[in-house]
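Re: the 308-residue chain
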Amino acid sequence: MLHFVSLLLLVAITLAGDVTYIQNRFQGWLDGDKISVKLRFSTDSPADVIIYEDTGYTLENRTSRLRVHVSRNFYRVYDYKNETELDMKHTQKVNDTDVALTLANGTVSVKINDGTIVQLPTPIFETGLLFHGALAVNYNDATTSLLSVDIDESDRNSSYIPIPLHFTEGQCLTVNFAISTGFFALLDRFDQVPLLVNIWGTNFKVARRMVAQSTLYDIGLSGDCKDILIEYQKEGTLISICDNNITIPHPEQGPPDYYRLSIPQNYMPDYMGYSVSNGSSFTTPSTSSPSSTSSASSTSSPSSTLSS
């Protein structure tokens, strides 16, 4: 498995110097994942390191599964019920703090700097994994510096199969399944703006997940569709299945850097492969917005999201 060093992206700034950095995790959290967050405190102002769970298609209703409340004087760990799992005080002020979290057996072990590793008694997930999520670090940037965030998934038994991919403007990607049931995601380098594609019989759904919201497109199908064609255009990503075309606009921050095709393990038996070619693979004109056979809506709840 790959070892990813996270890029810190500023996604929210609030009053009083409070800042939130978020590292999205489309491929979720799983036993074997290791997290290291390094902070430097100049005052007693605390910070929070939070493991979130979300639906994979919208971030509006994400939920906290674990929160480490840390300062140079103490650290406390709260579970998904916001109940205290651990409360430790330092014997002297610790200005440079490394919060190390390791996921194993459905729960988390916590280590602060060179201190004792403490295994939390309460599971943060029941099935051994959280399908989608994010890591957030909240702190006061006037008094605290976020030095680094590192997420190591080299020891995980992944529920997703990441396939390295180089897919850029002017190219066409074809993804093939053996039956008309399939699911995959095109991931950019830091999982910030994934594009999700789902076939389920005569239902075909596409979602562009953003940091603040996600947009869901539905396309009704009349045939047995197994092949999805995707063309990376200048203004958006054109997706075609059974002669139904839809263009997904690029995010406001610019065209995505697609570098990985991600498929859940339970869809792998029917996954036949993919190919990338230069130039257009379409014979019908592309559209600049969802066609009459599709609909688009911003979603704030998982009720209408894709099945993974």
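The chain is about 0% helix and 55% strand.
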